[in-house]
């Protein structure tokens, strides 16, 4: 036989194998779960912790279980099936998740990177232990812009936990190993094409099947027989479990902390030019240079003075971090009570800056601290710094309070970082002017301009106060501060600020301004330019630069763009309306007033009737990158026009938990699981049809589900999206004309 003919079947098989591998690589599994228990042996009546460990791929993060599920992102959720052999003790506990405030969601969420761990305590009631259930979660990547929801099963049985007699009759010999031994890792292998170093949080090799208590077929988990562990094995595993799980410390990414540090540093510089602080700079520096025998001694004293200022404010930040750290952050960022409290605090600060009253500390307290400063020596210098912090409180208090309020709803380290940045800028001039006293001659003289700084800060404090009222308003749906009301208040506040800078407004404690200085003119121009930018927002303009500070667009009642899209006069809407009332229209809504379907069959039927291609948006409630695409790409007029006129839109939510009618339940050919919700139905469709499980994901096809062009994912380039939509229309017309011929 000819050798080439002999090789052809093998070459064909190799080609098919490569195609299969390429297609399968689109199914991402960035998170690998494994299961442990805190005790291998337990008596009936005793408690044991079930441990869920997760290995998360690089550049991905997993949402935790302990933040407000109404915020937006999909929280990790565990459901335990009821069984007489056990009872739950308390709730599932995530171990040290990170915390982050997100402007897009308008609240704080918790998440894990690298590794994650959840613990659930149970009490064993019967020897035949059967703990089964499901968990659902979502992983996202800021690098690829993808989000993927998952759900799976778990099971803990007597194969993982040996149940002895009752706790009363348990002998010391049998109880001792139960306190010391940890089980072997029970790793659930995910069918992932992503390279991972290990599939267990305990760093157990993925190739050691003897330690697995769960055998996995795709996403289904079935118990497998695990050999009894030796004493050496259990001891080694106990050590691994105790040491290999890294503790997740609070904190956002490095970039966000650096940004917050720079904001705090800038706030410290602003505090220097307030009437309470600026005149004290030359006085304090003159003290160090005049009371020191040598210039070197004066420099050393000034350095210690500056370090004392930094220490005092950083200690304040540490105290706030301890008070409002991990446990109180979620309450502070979302509950109405602290947000209303912060709103009133900011309003009071603004009134103080406007000159209605002064926020001062008790004079007796100031006198005692000032007396300590007169003692001299290093202690005296420290109390001089303390006196400066107290005397300047009426000016710096609102600024310091603003930094602490902004950080109290975030991670533990933010108040410390904020106070360090503020105090560093605050202490810097005292030290530098002591080292270089000749610079003092270059300082501007004190005058009415210092009070103007306070008043301008008062306007800014008043505007920022609305953000806290808005958070409470959105979380509890009070609808007292909708988008147009919020914008109207900002327009009025910053317009008044602009008139003040021009000298058209004057407060009782302001000095006369015989002429308008050039700096005030430029600040007034910047302020009025900002007001002009805000005005179109009153009529529905998205104002993307302020998306994180304004209420959602959906709360805007008088939205001209939405009215235009829905068919007002002078509109550019499609001549064709929807073919029928959208199914699930009471649950979902398309952005920017677009009309479409949330059921694929309806979209296909309407596309066939109207002779249009289908635009499928695989999306999710908790997909932050989906919202970014809608806000930054879909909102572009060129994109909106094409979506409105050229396509039948089908938004398919892959994480929605609304249950389907029982007649629509089906068993997936992908994972052999029954799909009972809208989200599971369309997540399965995306996987089985397109070999992709990440969102956002955009597909253009005809009514027969034939692809028109290659689907695309997260891409904030508007031109690329426009070309994608145009190519889909061209491909549809070409195939449609061929079909007609």
Explained architecture:
The chain is of the alpha+beta class. It contains 21 helices and 20 strands. The model is unreliable at 13-25, 168-255, 325-330 and 567-576 (pLDDT under 50).
Features:
single chain; 741 residues; alpha+beta; six-stranded antiparallel β-sheet; five-stranded antiparallel β-sheet; 21 helices; 20 strands; 45% helix; 16% strand; globular
List the helices and strands and how they pair.
Blueprint: H1 3-24, E1 31-37, E2 41-44, E3 47-56, E4 61-63, E5 77-80, E6 86-94, E7 98-102, E8 107-113, E9 115-124, E10 130-140, E11 147-157, E12 162-166, H2 172-180, E13 186-187, E14 214-217, E15 220-223, H3 231-244, H4 254-272, H5 280-291, H6 295-323, H7 329-334, H8 336-353, H9 363-373, H10 377-391, H11 393-408, H12 413-435, H13 448-475, H14 483-501, H15 518-534, H16 560-565, H17 600-610, E16 614-619, H18 624-634, H19 637-646, E17 648-653, E18 666-667, E19 674-675, H20 678-690, E20 697-701, H21 718-740
Parallel strand pairs: 2-12, 16-17
Antiparallel strand pairs: 1-3, 1-13, 3-9, 4-8, 4-10, 5-10, 6-9, 7-8, 10-11, 14-15, 16-20, 18-19
Summarize the structure.
By secondary structure, the chain is of the alpha+beta class.
Radius of gyration: 32 Å
Q: Tally the helices: what do you get?
A: 21
Termini separation comes to 46 Å
Reported for the largest beta sheet, the result is: 6 strands, antiparallel
DSSP helix fraction: 40-55%
Give the quaternary arrangement of the chains: single chain
């Amino acid at each position: 036989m000819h050798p080439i003919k002999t090789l052809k079947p093998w070459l064909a098989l190799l080609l098919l194998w490569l195609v299969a591998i390429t297609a399968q690589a689109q199914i991402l599994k960035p998170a690998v779960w494994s299961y442990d228990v805190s005790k291998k042996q337990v008596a009936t009546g005793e408690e044991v912790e079930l441990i869920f460990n997760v290995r998360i791929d690089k550049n991905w993060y997993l949402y935790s279980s302990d933040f407000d599920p109404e915020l937006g992102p999909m929280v990790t959720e565990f459901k335990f099936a009821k069984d007489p052999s056990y009872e739950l003790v308390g709730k599932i506990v995530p171990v040290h998740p990170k915390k982050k405030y997100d402007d897009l969601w308008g609240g704080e969420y918790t998440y894990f990177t690298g590794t994650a761990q959840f613990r659930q305590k149970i009490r064993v009631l019967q020897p035949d232990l059967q703990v089964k259930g499901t968990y659902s979660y979502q992983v996202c990547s800021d690098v690829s812009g993808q989000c993927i929801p998952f759900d799976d099963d778990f099971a803990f049985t007597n194969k993982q936990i040996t149940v002895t007699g009752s706790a009363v009759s348990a002998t010391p010999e049998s109880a001792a190993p139960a306190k010391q031994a940890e089980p072997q890792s029970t790793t659930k292998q995910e069918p992932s094409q992503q390279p991972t170093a290990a599939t267990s949080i305990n760093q157990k090799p993925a190739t050691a099947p003897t330690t697995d208590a769960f055998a996995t077929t795709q996403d289904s988990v079935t118990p497998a027989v695990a050999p009894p562990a030796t004493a050496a094995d259990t001891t080694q595993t106990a050590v691994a479990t105790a040491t290999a799980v890294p503790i997740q410390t609070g904190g956002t990414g490095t970039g966000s902390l650096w940004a917050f540090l720079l904001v705090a540093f800038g706030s410290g510089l602003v505090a220097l030019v307030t009437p309470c602080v600026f005149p004290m700079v030359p006085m304090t520096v003159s003290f160090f240079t005049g009371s020191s025998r040598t210039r070197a001694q004066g420099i050393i004293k000034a350095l210690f003075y500056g370090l004392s200022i930094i220490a005092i404010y950083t200690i304040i930040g540490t105290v706030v971090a301890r008070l409002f750290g991990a446990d109180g952050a979620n309450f502070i960022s979302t509950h109405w009570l602290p947000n209303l409290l912060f709103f009133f605090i900011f309003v009071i600060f603004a009134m103080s800056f406007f000159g209605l009253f002064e926020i001062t500390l008790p004079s007796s307290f100031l006198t005692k601290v000032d007396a300590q400063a007169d003692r001299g020596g290093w202690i005296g210098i420290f109390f001089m710094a303390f006196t400066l912090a107290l005397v300047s409180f009426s000016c710096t208090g609102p600024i310091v309070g603003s930094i602490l309020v902004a950080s109290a709803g975030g991670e533990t380290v933010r108040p410390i970082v904020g106070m360090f940045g503020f105090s560093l800028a605050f202490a810097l001039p005292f030290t530098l002017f002591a080292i270089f006293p000749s610079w003092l001659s270059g300082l501007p003289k004190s005058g009415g301009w210092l009070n103007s700084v306070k008043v301008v800060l008062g306007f800014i404090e008043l505007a920022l106060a609305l953000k806290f009222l808005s958070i409470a308003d959105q979380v509890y749906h009070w609808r007292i501060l909708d988008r147009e009301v919020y914008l109207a208040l900002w327009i009025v506040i910053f317009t008044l600020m602009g008139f003040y800078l021009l000298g058209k407004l004057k407060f009782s404690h302001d000095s006369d301004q015989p002429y308008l200085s050039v700096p005030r003119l430029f600040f007034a121009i910047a302020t009025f330019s900002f007001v002009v930018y805000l005005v179109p927002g009153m009529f529905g303009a998205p104002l993307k630069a302020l998306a994180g500070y304004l209420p959602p667009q959906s709360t805007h009642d008088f939205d001209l763009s939405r009215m235009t899209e829905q068919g007002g006069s002078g509109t550019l809407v499609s001549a064709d309306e929807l073919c029928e009332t959208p199914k699930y229209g009471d649950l979902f809504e398309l952005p920017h007033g677009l009309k479409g379907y949330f059921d694929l069959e309806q979209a296909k039927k309407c596309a066939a009737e109207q002779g249009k291609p289908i635009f499928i948006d695989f999306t999710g409630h908790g997909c932050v990158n989906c919202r970014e695409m809608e806000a930054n790409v879909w909102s572009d007029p060129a994109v909106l026009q094409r979506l409105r006129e050229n396509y039948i839109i089908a938004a398919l939510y892959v994480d929605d938990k609304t249950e389907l009618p029982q007649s629509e339940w089906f068993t997936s050919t992908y994972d052999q699981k029954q799909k009972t919700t809208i989200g599971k139905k369309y997540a399965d469709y995306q996987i089985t049809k397109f070999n992709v499980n990440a969102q956002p994901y955009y597909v253009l096809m005809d009514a027969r589900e034939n692809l028109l062009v290659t689907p695309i994912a997260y891409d904030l380039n508007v031109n690329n999206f426009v070309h994608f939509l145009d190519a889909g229309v061209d491909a549809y017309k070409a195939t449609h004309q061929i079909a007609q011929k």
